[in-house]
Structure formats: C-alpha cells, structure tokens
Amino acid sequence: MKLKPENQVDITKESLVVILDAYGISDFTFEPISEGIANSSARIESVGKKYVLRVYVQGKKDEDILFEIGFQDYLRSHDIPIPILHSNKEGSELHTVEIGDKRWQTILMDLVE
User: Fold this and answer.
1) Phi, psi (5° rounding) for residue 106?
2) Residue 35 binned pLDDT confidence (cut-offs 50, 70, 90)
3) 23: number of CA atoms within 13 Å, CB side?
C-alpha cells in the first residue's frame, strides 16, 4: 500500500505518451509496477530497450530529487552497479511536466533485472 495515496498520479498510456516524448520515446509498451511505498513506477519497453520510469509522489521538492540523483551519480562514479539514468531532450535527468492539474516529476532509468 502506498503512503499518501491521494498524492499519487495515475499512470496511463496517455500520460506516458506526454512524459516519454521528452526522452524521444514514442513507440512503447508499459506495465505499472506495484512495488514501492512512496513513488509510482512503470516498466517501459521500446525498440528492444527496457526502462523504469519513476514518478514521484505529488508535493516532493525538486531539490530532494536532485539530491537523490546526485547520490546515484556518486555511487556510479565509485563503481557501484546501479541503473543508468537517462536525460530528457533538454539534458536534464529530472523531468517535470504538467498533465491536467498535476505536476509530474520523473526520472527514466535502465531496467536492471
């Protein structure tokens, strides 16, 4: 069960079309991932590549997410094997977009099974 379910966003094909366009991904399949207690995630497959899209709970501060990204970059630079993050078309690993009345904050990473 998610913490603060009222602050979760509904991951749909329509919302993913908007989000994934920022990464240059237009032809994809997806499957929501039910694990996790705070954020939502979806498994994305496109042109033989597999990703995980993390959608942060509404109300999270960009600074907190950027700290998390920086920590992941630090671990990666010290040869800790964690998934590669992908930048959007603007070169940012943190992507934000308004869909409906909600501000979505996302990161896209390689799926590691």
Assistant:
1) -140, 155
2) confident
3) 25
pLDDT reported for residue 2: 47
pLDDT at position 8 is: 58
DSSP letter for each residue of the chain:
--SSGGG-----HHHHHHHHHTTT--S-EEEEE---SSSEEEEEEETTEEEEEEEPPTT--HHHHHHHHHHHHHHHHTT---PPEE--TTS-SSEEEEETTEEEEEEEEE---
Contacts of 33-38 spanning 24+ positions with Cβ under 8 A: 36/2, 37/1, 37/2, 37/3, 38/2, 38/3, 38/4
Q: How confident is the model at residue 99 (pLDDT cuts 50, 70, 90)?
A: confident
Contacts of 12 (CB under 8 A, 6+ apart): none
Query: Quick check: 1 pLDDT over 60?
Result: no
